[in-house]
Design a protein that fits this description.
With 286 residues, the chain is an alpha/beta fold. The chain has helices spanning 13-21, 24-30, 36-49, 67-72, 86-95, 134-144, 165-178, 190-194, 199-203, 227-235, 238-245, 249-267; strands at residues 4-8, 55-61, 76-82, 102-107, 120-126, 145-155, 212-219, 222-225, 272-275, 278-285. It has one domain: Rossmann fold. The chain starts with a strand and ends with a strand.
Length: 286
C-alpha cells in the first residue's frame, strides 16, 4: 500500500506562471506515457552508480500528472514527487496507483522543494527542467544527492511522422510563428540544457563537483496517433493554451474548431507511428 505524505511549500511567481501554461485534465488525457526503455536505461545507470536497484530514495522534480514518476516507480523504495501546480499534483496522486513504494507529495517549485541534504540516490527531471530556475534547481539537487548519486534528465519533443510532412510544416509554422509568445522562449538544445548539472553549472558556480556524464542517449518513444490524438496533443501545448487564454469564450470555441478542422484535413482517418524523439542524459556524482 502507498503511504502518502503531502507537504505544501510557498510558491513563487514562476509557479503562478506554471499554472497558466497547463491544463491538467487535457495533459492527463493526451500526453504520452514514458516508455519502458527509459526505465531500463535509468536502471542500468543506477546499477553503475549505486550498485543495487531499487535504491532507497528518489525524487521526481516537475512530475506533472505523475507519468514521469510511473517510469521510476520500480527503481526506488521511496519517491518524493515534486510539482508546483496544485491540480497537476492532484492528478499525480490519482495516476500513482497502489504499489510497494512510498510516495511523498511536495507542492513546490523545483528549486524550493526543501529536499533533505544527502538523502537521495536518484533525482529525475523529465521534460521539466527547461521550465525551471536552473541555478536554484541544480544547487538543490546536487545538495540533496547522496554520494554516489545519479541525476537523470530527459526531454521529448512534439512528435513527428514521415507520413504527414504537411502536418509537420503546419505545426512548426504555428509553434514557432503565429502562436509564439515572448514569455515562452524556445528551449536550449537538450545536451546544453542538461549540462547545467555538468561543467556549465560548475562554471556558473551552481556546484563544485565533477560528475561523470552518461549519454546523451536517444530512447525509443513511438506512439501510433490519429487525428483526434493529435488534436489533444496540440490542445495540451503551452503555446496553444496561452493563445487561448487571451480569447473570449466564443473566440476560443472558434479557435479550437479551426485547429480540429485543419488537423483533420491534413490527416483524415489515417493513423501512423509518431516519434517523440526522447533524449536522456545522466550525471553521476561520486
Amino acid at each position: 500500500m502507498i503511504k502518502r505524505n503531502v507537504r505544501l511549500c510557498q510558491l513563487d511567481s514562476r509557479a503562478k506562471l506554471f499554472q497558466m501554461k497547463f491544463d491538467p485534465k487535457t495533459y492527463l488525457q493526451f500526453r504520452p506515457r514514458y516508455p519502458i526503455a527509459l526505465t531500463e536505461l535509468w536502471r542500468n545507470w543506477l546499477r553503475l552508480s549505486a550498485g543495487v536497484v531499487p535504491v532507497f530514495r528518489a525524487a521526481d522534480i516537475g512530475a506533472g500528472t505523475g507519468f514521469s514518476t510511473q517510469a521510476i516507480a520500480s527503481l526506488a523504495r521511496q519517491i518524493t514527487v515534486v510539482e508546483p501546480d496544485r491540480e497537476m499534483l492532484d492528478q499525480a496522486r490519482l495516476v500513482l496507483e497502489p504499489a510497494e513504494v512510498r510516495f511523498d507529495f511536495v507542492r513546490a517549485p523545483g528549486g524550493r522543494a526543501g529536499l533533505e541534504a544527502g538523502a537521495f540516490d536518484f533525482v529525475q527531471l523529465a521534460s521539466s527542467f527547461h521550465w525551471m530556475d536552473q541555478a536554484q534547481v541544480v544547487s538543490e539537487v546536487v545538495r540533496a544527492l547522496r554520494r554516489p548519486g545519479l541525476v537523470g534528465l530527459c526531454e521529448y519533443s512534439f512528435p513527428q511522422s514521415s507520413e504527414f510532412p504537411e502536418l509537420q510544416e503546419w505545426i512548426t509554422e504555428k509553434f514557432l510563428g503565429e502562436w509564439q509568445t515572448a514569455e515562452l522562449k524556445n528551449r536550449l538544445p537538450f545536451a546544453e540544457l542538461a549540462d547545467a548539472f555538468g561543467e556549465r553549472g560548475r562554471a556558473a558556480g551552481w556546484h563544485s563537483a565533477h560528475p561523470e556524464r552518461f549519454g546523451p542517449i536517444q530512447v525509443p518513444m513511438l506512439h501510433e496517433l490519429g487525428w483526434s490524438e493529435m488534436v489533444g496533443l496540440v490542445f495540451s501545448q503551452s503555446r496553444f493554451l496561452r493563445r487561448l487564454d487571451a480569447m473570449t469564450l466564443t473566440e476560443g470555441d472558434r479557435f479550437r474548431d479551426e485547429v480540429r478542422t485543419r488537423i483533420f484535413s491534413l490527416m483524415g482517418e489515417r493513423r501512423a507511428s509518431f516519434d517523440f524523439h526522447l533524449q536522456a542524459i545522466g550525471y553521476w556524482y561520486r
